[in-house]
Amino acid sequence: MRISKIFLVMAISGLTTLGLADPPAAEQAYKVVKKEKVGRAGGFDYVYADADRRRLYVPRSAGRGGGGGVEPRIDVYDLDTLKPVGKVTGTNGVHGAAVDPKSGHGFASSNPVVMFDTKTFQTIKTIEVAGRPDGIFFEPAGEQIYVLSHAEPNVTVIDARDGSIVGTIDLGGAPEQGQSDGAGHAYIDLEDKGQIAVVDTKAMKVTAHYDLGGKGGGPAGLGLDAKNHILFAFCHEPATCVILNADDGKILSALPIGTGVDGGGFNPNTMEAFSSQGDGTLSIIKENSPTRFEVEQTVKTMRGAKTCTLDSKTNQIFLIAAEMAAPAPTTAGAAAPRRGGRGQMVPDSFTILSVGK
Predict the structure, then answer these.
(1) Separation of alpha carbons 199 and 209, rounded Å
(2) Cα–Cα distance for residue pair 205/191, rounded to 1 Å
(3) pLDDT for the residue numbered 342
(4) I need a labelling partner for 344 at 20 to 30 A (CA). Which of 49, 285, 296, 314 fits?
(5) Structurally, how many domains does the chain consist of?
């Protein structure tokens, strides 16, 4: 028995040396693997990773503490090094970006929408749209760009090949984030209704509204497991991820997340949903099966890092944030600062973070 135990210990030791045994738990956990302070002035909203072309698009505007005289633009970074490689200009009031991987055309969620070449970052054309462009995503089944707006029309659909407007869609509420299953369905969360709108992308019509059943309100982020038809709605109040069946809207589970969510997604490579919060956390939810889910980890990121994007090639999640100065104290007789108000951005504090293992 003693000899057998010795050989067993030696065998396990050998496997560990060869890298075949499981690594320590600490090595398996997500963490901030890179934190690049890229600076420059300008407010910010959504961040977008083009995994195929290895580009990271970061819209910058004059709003949100950016100060006056700021050039509205999309700063473009190398996705691997986070070094700047160019910029897209003329993007007035820009909030986000999306890319059609087939045509190589990029689109800025600005007014007008700017269609650009992803190789040169030069403008191809500008597209006048109604409403107030905010969120944006690519719909691969029709090779179309969905531009979201809280004001009507809620969706402007653009042909990604030539930049023509295909039509508009009334969602019946204010959209925040959308996902496509690539098979003719788009899902868009409605922040003011506590619902997810289901869109037939061929007919460009809403076919259903999935109510969150009081489990969560103000959905601001959305993830989709297209293979198993599972939706992950990341909500403000309460701070919850409501998980639904994408086929019929049946609620499967509800799990806690951080506060101040403004973005989310799903990684089919790892079977994990994720959401980014303004409180400086990234929530990771594991899909163990199509009916069983758990909060796997809460990663500490950076306060204000409330939007995120996935690099599907490296499984890293990218976030953006900046340091904010404390609001100035109210002097006697002056109006009190509005609720949720914050100070100005600390100069050159704008930061890109990547989270991975």
Answers:
(1) 9
(2) 19
(3) 56
(4) 49
(5) 1
What are the phi and psi torsion angles at 60 (to 5°)? -130, 135
DSSP 286-318: EEEETTEEEEEEEEE--TT---EEEETTTTEEE
**Rounded distance, CA 144 to CA 285, Å?**
29
DSSP one-letter code for 95: -
What range does the domain containing 53 cover? 32-170+318-326+344-357
Cα angle, residue 237 at apex, residues 230 and 231 outer, rounded to 5° = 5
> Does residue 241 belong to any structural domain of this protein?
no
Instruction: Report whether 219 contacts 234 (CB < 8 A).
Output: yes
| pLDDT the model gives residue 28 | 75
pLDDT at residue 8, as a whole number: 41
Report if residue 96 sits inside a domain.
yes
In order along the chain (357 residues), what is the average pLDDT of each group of 10 residues? 42 40 59 97 96 97 65 97 97 97 97 97 98 97 97 97 98 98 97 97 98 95 98 97 98 98 98 98 98 98 98 98 81 51 82 98
The number of beta carbons lying within 10 Å of the beta carbon of residue 262 is 21
Taking the alpha carbons at both ends of the chain, their separation in whole angstroms is 40
What is d(CA 177, CA 310) in angstroms, rounded to the nearest whole number?
A: 14
Q: Is 106 part of a structural domain of the chain?
A: yes
Taking alpha carbons only, the member of 200, 206, 252, 205 closest to residue 225 is 252
Residue 11 resides in a domain: no
Extract the tokens encoding 319.
């976030």
Question: 323 CB contacts (<8 Å, ≥6 apart)?
Answer: 304, 345, 346, 349, 351
What's the whole-model pTM score? 0.89
